[in-house]
Amino acid sequence: MTDRQSTILKTLGITALALGGLAVTNTLAARAAERRYPPDGRFVTVDGVRLHYMEAGEGPPVVLLHGNVSALGDWLASGLFDRLAQNHRVIAFDRPGMGHSDRPRDRAWTPEDQADLLAEAFAVLGIENAVVAGHSYATLVALALALDHPRTVKGLALLAGYYFPTKRVDAVMVAPVAAPVLGDLLRYTVSPPFSKAVMPALLKTMFSPRPVPDHLTETFPAALTTRPGQLRANAQDGVTMAPATDRLQHRYADLAVPVAIFAGHEDRIVSQEEQSGRLHHVLPNSTLHWVPDCGHMVHHADPEQVERRIDELSAEGAPLRVAAQR
C-alpha cells in the first residue's frame, strides 16, 4: 500500500468516525428534545398514520394548521389557541412529520396528500363545517381541504400564505435533505447542528420587524424542529410547495367558502403583496387584512384580529366584508 493510499484510508476512517459520532449525538439530542417537549395532546391514527393533536373548548369547530419548521405549539405560543377555546371547539394538529405526528415514506406528502389525511382525521373526530386556519405552508393544506373535501370546511383563515409559484432559492437548498440516502446521511449528521445554528436568525427573520417574543424559547418547541425526522418533513414541504401552488392556483376560483386573508407588508419570508394581494383579487368572497408593523408571524402580532375574523367566519349567516383593509 502506498503512502497516498494509506492517507486516504486514514482520512476515510476519521470521517466515518466523525459522522458516526454526529449521528449518535443527534439521535440523543432528538430524544432529549422529545423528553423536554412531550406530547400534551391526544393521538388519532388514520390510514396507518399517527397524528398528534390538541383539543379544547366547546362550540363551532375551528382547526389550526401550523406552517413549516414548526409544530402545533406555535398556536399555543401565540395565544390564539386559548383565545379561540373560549367560544369554540378548537383543534390544533401537528401536521404529518411535525411535532409528534408520523410521516411514513410511502407517499409524497404534498398539500393535497396532507389534506386527504386530515379529512380522514376529521371524520374520526367528528369535525364538520369547521373554520380551518392555516399559517404559511399550511395555507395550501387548508385550501386543498376546502377544494377536495368541501363538506369539512365552512370557511378559511389564511395567514401569511404562499399561493402562486415563484422561484425559491430555499427550495433548492433543502432539496438534498429530502432526497433518499443522501438526505438520510445529512439529516443524521450535519443538518441538525446546522439547523440549530441558524434557528435564531430564522426566528428573527420570521418575526421581523417585531422582536422575537421573550417567552418563545419556553413555549415553542424549537428543539423538535431540528430532529432528523422533522428535518425530512421540513425539506419535503419546501420542495413540494411551489409545484403545489402551480396545481392549486387554477382551482382557486372554485372555492365555495368565504376566506379571510391575513398578511404583513414587511414579511421577509413571502412577498405578501405578490401573494396575498393577488389571491384576494382572485377570490371575490374574501377579505384582506394587512396587519400593521408585521412580518410573517401575523398570528403572534395580532391574535385579537385573527380571532375576530374567525368568529365572523364561524357565525351562521354572518356577512363578510369584502373590501381590502389597510
TrEMBL record:
SUPFAM superfamilies membership: alpha/beta-Hydrolases (SSF53474)
An example Gene Ontology molecular-function term: hydrolase activity
Keywords: Hydrolase
Entry coiled-coil feature ranges: none
Record-annotated AB hydrolase-1 domain positions: 60-300
PANTHER family referenced in this protein's UniProt entry, alphabetically: ALPHA_BETA-HYDROLASES SUPERFAMILY PROTEIN (PTHR43689:SF8), HYDROLASE (PTHR43689)
Name of this chain's protein: Alpha/beta hydrolase
Species lineage: Bacteria, Pseudomonadati, Pseudomonadota, Alphaproteobacteria, Rhodospirillales
